[in-house]
Amino acid sequence: MQPHNEGDFTALGRVTKGMDIADAIQLNDKITGAKMIIVR
Length: 40
Prior knowledge:
Elements: H1 19-23
């Protein structure tokens, strides 16, 4: 959870692995890649 983003951004999705990495994201970090997997 990123408290500084609460109420400012809509987040849709789920982390399926690497939550430790997601938790470590800080303000001003550069996201260099992401993958979307559509589950129906």
